[in-house]
């Protein structure tokens, strides 16, 4: 990692001159040639290849190929990039404060400075994924783009080591940083980078099983493995050592050989049957494919859904007892707009009507799906869904819908969200919508034991200042029937303090436990003190009381989704 990344404020190295800089043509040429040849000689001033990076040992042919690609890369940067950069893709504006990347961190002890870790969390680990670019972006960079880094906190398991947790930060082991120095999919520059990335992949003769995606979005535990998920590539597995808390990337997985194109990062696991459900959305038909796997990982269903007529983003979906539910939002993939209108690869199609598709959970064909128009309903995340009525004829969907979806990519600070409940009567086709709170809320989850079943409580991120999150809100969904604001309690961390998505962990297993009897886990950044901490909140308490706090040895950048893996699940991991 270059030194410019270790500082809070990015400093552009001399090689990253912008168009119009006073460098003379001969100096420009020398710089391009030297920087390109340096990669051949191994003296690159870009980030040195970390020990776990794939393809670090190159043949002579591969080094020449890399040099050739570096020359093309500089040419792309020089001739296809429009300066000044759009603010949404300017790394000088984006990679600052706690969005700036950090180096890897080996397992490091962290003191528990407040309270004690609850019994159900002991010996388990909270793991959170997020973008953390290895190299300084050479051109446009979006906050969704960086290489995935996992931050794991192994909690004490009792006994002599009960006084401290262990923090570890590791990159996912993918070829992403090798094939691309900058990957923002916007305009002609984005296309040129994409082509160049493919060229690098081919020229350096990388093992296709290593993948190109940044794997930076979510992390999940199923089939006795920790899976790292990104939408542009297959999942990766990692192994978290229960002994020392270190993270080891293990292999790229394709979920039964089917998810070869990546897909949704929000797979659903039935808490009763153990079945896993996934979707893949694609730039080419079929634009949406639905999968079902049994609890052992064997594929049961692969259902292409031909009635999706344009390439759309299906970031999340839901599965109830009898149905799979697919919200088709106005967020679409637009390669032509990217090529000819200097637009983003992902954009909001305001002419499109949002709709929700309901398909039998074990449908034999995608033609069985029924679509219901729900104009303006653009949920990027689903809190939960279930069925109501004597015959299960009403589907209820609770999700965080983006209010200003047209700003989702380019003006994230305007991208407010609201939690909505949508009820779909499958017989009468009547759709009713209820706004659950006036607060700006995003993400959203429930007690995992209630996934796909009726749940009373949901937990959502408070996002008055997107993309930052200043706290968590607890919603009582039953209040919706009384036409009252469903937020019953909120926990914020004070001025200048921001957190991540809060993950709910039940206090234990058993039917005698209340649904909200458990804990909310998240990382918190105090931007005033530039310090990070891990907090445990009591989800049942009247004020979401913080009952335990772990002081972290260095900051944890803001990121996306996390998961808690219990001590017993850590022991069940398959170390490949
Ligand atoms: Fe997500």
From TrEMBL:
BP-aspect Gene Ontology terms: carotene catabolic process
A Gene Ontology molecular function term of the record: carotenoid dioxygenase activity
Family, per entry: Belongs to the carotenoid oxygenase family.
Listed PANTHER family: BETA-CAROTENE DIOXYGENASE, CAROTENOID CLEAVAGE DIOXYGENASE 4, CHLOROPLASTIC-RELATED
Binding site for Fe cation: 266, 315, 381, 561
Organism name: Spirodela intermedia (Intermediate duckweed)
Cofactor-binding details, from the entry: Binds 1 Fe(2+) ion per subunit.
Pfam hit, one: RPE65
InterPro entries given in the database record: Carotenoid_Oase (IPR004294)
Keywords of this entry: Dioxygenase, Iron, Metal-binding, Oxidoreductase
Cofactor(s), by name: Fe(2+)
Name of this chain's protein: Uncharacterized protein
Cellular component terms per the entry's GO annotation: chloroplast stroma
